[in-house]
Design a protein that fits this description.
The chain has 841 residues and is of the alpha/beta class. Helix content is 49%, strand content 9%. The protein is globular and about 85 Å long. The relative contact order is 0.12.
Length: 841
């Protein structure tokens, strides 16, 4: 039995992260490694020190040059316009190489910076520049000169032309009511929250191996050969395919030009460099940048530089949801490391140093959300540029190699929230791998998150993937996965606030937040429902109605997006796009798998609320509808005893069939609806439970609920239990997840699962063994995802009270880790209130 601990008499056992904070006062200092030279440690620390205290700032270069180009290319094909805009950016954007860096490819001003994508959300720019510095969630500094550029040069052009503008105008009234405030289309209602206007595409993983191995000169030549072979008498080929291939040629030239400009810059710096060692580094960097990504890499350093150029140029191309993931780095980089290692050209420590240079480059780029709803869903400068390790190879055999272990060791030695590390686990994962994963988890910073091959691969196969592509999936975003040359669906889908279903049922199609306005359908006065079946029937009607509205919403988004976004670089790195001469953002790419997902937010909260109603009103008859509705109306003020009774009802997360059966049925309604109706959208839609930080703003629009939850507080996150409700230990949480899956249908996607443990629970060798055993149980139950917070509640409380002493404290929020002190107070409370389990049983 595990209870939330509020006071402890004995001395706390600290996680390694907490120990570092106690020693350094919250200042981030990189861990010493016996095998790492002092000069290399100094390099990494100096790079970090150059930006660690800088505030996040807005860089307008990308938006400015993109807008200039679009003004010049009115009337041309969208893919061509996009490629030409990227060429202008490559030609004009400032090129800098940071001191001490061994990799080149910065896309913004010094320090921590974020980019604007006016083609996506330019309609919000006037509002954004007024609020950027003062907003509670992820504030950004912006200079007065950049405000002028935005107000005078960028925003006016995009007025009325953005994707958001057209999307909001296209929704029918019934969809609009649950999406935006009809009187203010810039304000979300957080009921059926569309997310396609927050990013240009869903999370994505490139085929980095193609870019690294072949290079863009070869990709350009492939496009030119295809172009030369087209039939000029066939309009589809002479127009559509011609324009697509021209965009591939232009974007290839653009990234080659951009890399060459870095080569020139490195050579200039080398010429004036007085330090002989740094001079050699810059000369070598100049040679590498002149070679890759134009041509294929031949060394590990070249391969990593090529990947970094591709990754950063992708960020110039578009705002991809969860940023561009790094794919399976231990796979596509392995041959380069193995060759260089055998030839004595690189050591483990030199490889780690190059990785660390990349992670520090990532840490300076901050994903900037302009959309008011988008920033609330991605607090703490959220980032998901996942590096995937482990798992099986294309043939289904274990894929771990020495680079896998280097990346794990590197993460333990490098206490930064970049990159996001994701470890694939399967039934034959080596014991050494499992133990090193467990040791990394024990550090307490939330890495790595775990993905389960035993659940994911069979599901991908059932949805039409071939074995090689399914086996080779990479993590992209919070908990999602991609098959880089088979996945083709890119339109983001909705977050559905299923806690609103409770209110819509309680108040006959209305919600407390929105007064007497009829938002959905009337299903009757709950006081007249004499049986649980009557009440639950009304709930199901509300759930199906909300899903119907979502499907309409998604249909509109799928139809409109291809008119607003193109991805020539992403298309160049996708086998099917190149074969069909079709942009990745087309509504359908021939031969591709269109796999989408919509999120249910608040599963634990809803299951607990319905269980409380069933138990107290209809079975035990200890509570009347009049008493419950009055208590909810007063937010339990004066009804504390009733609130306590409700809070002690059966709860999801305790391996209790009473609550779990309700959660499973809620899920089944969604899965079955998707199974029966996805065909109308020409794709497969799946139910997913990934809240990011949306459970906080979604909770703000929900009044008091029958599980004792007070109005405005956070909903449960992902597929985790309600905060503090899981009292039977973490294994019971696993079992509740297992028992609530509807495994007879495949319209299922990822379930994000947070587990918080006290450091004492996993201390020492025995603690490592306990984590490994727990991971194996999770794996055998075939659950999709698992991640940990290993931290004392006392530490979180102190960090909230004295943030200046805990600046480097990392916590796992959702599918990402963030600095605790950069989260809003509401999200901090959400993390604090999660159950801290004191035993792994």
């Amino acid at each position: 039995m595990n209870a939330q601990t509020t006071t402890r008499t004995k001395e706390l056992v600290l996680s390694p992260q907490e120990e570092r904070i106690a020693q350094t006062g919250g200042t981030l200092t990189f861990i010493d490694s016996n095998s790492q030279s002092e000069s290399k440690k100094n390099r990494i620390q100096k790079i970090f020190d150059s930006f660690k205290d800088s505030k996040s700032t807005v860089d307008v270069q990308r938006a400015r040059y993109f807008t200039e180009s679009f003004k010049e290319t009115e009337g041309e094909a969208l893919s061509l316009r996009w490629a030409k805009a990227l060429y202008k950016i490559a030609e004009k954007i400032e090129v800098t190489i940071d001191p001490y860096q061994l990799l080149a490819g910065r896309i913004g001003k010094a320090g921590k910076y974020g980019l604007l994508y006016p083609e996506l959300d330019g309609c919000f720019l006037h509002q954004f520049v007024k609020q950027a510095q003062s907003r509670k969630e992820s504030p950004f500094e912006i200079s007065q000169e950049d405000v002028r550029i935005i107000e005078e040069e960028i925003a006016p052009y995009w007025e009325g032309k953005t994707y958001y503008d057209e999307l909001s105008r296209a929704f029918p009234d019934d969809v609009l009511r649950v999406t935006y405030d009809p009187k203010d289309l810039f304000t979300s209602r957080y009921i059926v929250n569309e997310t396609s206007s927050m990013r240009s595409a869903l999370q994505w993983v490139h085929d980095y191996q193609k870019g690294i191995d072949e290079g863009f000169e070869a990709i350009k030549n492939q496009a030119q050969e295809k172009l030369n072979s087209l039939n000029p008498l066939n309009p589809e080929e002479s127009l559509d395919k011609t324009q697509f291939l021209q965009s591939i040629i232009i974007v290839s030239d653009a990234i080659i030009l951009w890399a060459h400009r870095h080569a020139v810059k490195a050579a200039e710096l080398a010429k004036n460099e007085q330090n002989s060692e740094r001079k050699k580094e810059l000369e070598k960097l100049a040679e590498i940048c002149d070679k890759v990504p134009r041509y294929g890499a031949t060394t590990f350093h070249e391969a990593l530089q090529s990947q970094w150029f591709i990754q950063m140029f992708s960020r110039l191309e578009q705002k991809t949801g969860a940023t561009i993931s790094n794919g399976r780095m231990d796979q596509y980089l392995w041959k380069y490391y193995e060759k260089d290692s055998k030839e004595g050209k690189i050591t483990r420590e030199e490889a780690k140093e190059l990785f660390q240079c990349m992670w520090l480059g990532m840490a300076q780029y901050q994903d900037l959300y302009v959309s008011p709803a988008g920033v609330k869903f991605n607090e703490g400068y959220a980032h998901w540029e996942a590096v995937t390790i482990g798992g099986v190879d294309k043939n289904g055999y274990d894929a771990t190699n020495e680079l896998t272990y280097i990346l794990l060791e590197n993460k333990r030695e490098f206490p930064l929230n970049y990159p996001d590390l994701a470890a694939r686990i399967h039934s034959l994962s080596p014991e050494r791998y499992l133990y090193e994963v467990a040791e990394t988890i024990k550090d307490g910073a939330g890495f790595p998150k775990l993905l389960n091959d035993e659940e994911i691969i069979p599901l991908l196969l059932s949805k039409g993937a071939d074995a090689a592509n399914a086996n080779d999936y990479a993590v992209s975003g919070c908990t999602e996965v991609r098959m880089p040359n088979l996945d083709t669906f890119t339109t983001p889908c909705a977050f559905i606030n299923i806690a609103s279903l409770v209110e819509l049922t309680l108040y006959n199609g209305r919600m407390k937040k929105y007064g007497d306005e009829l938002l959905t359908i009337e299903t009757g006065d709950v006081r007249n429902f004499t049986t649980w079946e009557e009440f639950y029937s009304a709930f199901i009607k509300q759930e199906k109605h909300l899903l119907t509205l979502f499907f309409k919403q998604q249909y509109v988004a799928n139809r409109i997006r291809p008119k607003h976004f193109a991805s020539p670089l992403g298309s160049a790195l996708h086998k099917l796009c190149m074969e069909n001469c079709t942009d990745l953002h087309s509504q359908h790419v021939k031969g591709g798998l269109d796999l989408g997902f919509f999120d249910f937010i608040g599963l634990g909260t809803v299951a607990d609320s319905l269980a409380a109603i069933k138990k107290n009103i209809y079975e035990d008859k200890t509570v009347t509808w009049n008493a419950l509705l009055e208590a909810l109306a007063t937010n339990f003020e004066g009804f504390e005893a009733l609130q306590a009774r409700l809070a002690h009802s059966p709860a999801y997360g305790n391996d209790d069939s009473y609550a779990d059966s309700i959660a499973k049925d809620i899920d089944r309604i969604g899965v079955q609806f998707a199974h029966e109706n996805s065909k109308y959208l020409g794709m497969q839609l799946d139910v997913r439970y990934v809240s990011q930080s949306a459970n906080v703003p979604f909770g703000k629009v929900i009044g008091a609920l029958p599980n004792g939850r007070k109005a405005g507080t956070a909903l449960s996150d992902g597929s985790s239990a309600s905060q503090g409700a899981d009292t039977h230990g973490p294994t019971a949480v696993l079992m509740s997840n297992y028992r609530t899956k509807n495994t007879d249908m495949n319209n299922r996607a990822s379930r994000l699962l947070n587990i918080k443990l006290s450091p004492a629970t996993v201390s020492g060798t025995d603690g490592t063994k306990r984590i490994v055993s727990f991971i194996k149980t999770w794996r055998d139950l075939k659950l999709w995802h698992l991640q940990f917070n290993i931290i004392n509640r006392e530490t979180l409380l102190k960090a909230k009270e004295h943030p200046e002493n805990y600046r480097s404290l990392l916590v796992r929020v959702a599918g990402y880790s963030a600095y605790f002190v950069e989260l809003s107070p509401e999200l901090q409370d959400d993390v604090i209130l999660r159950t801290e389990h004191t035993a792994l049983n």
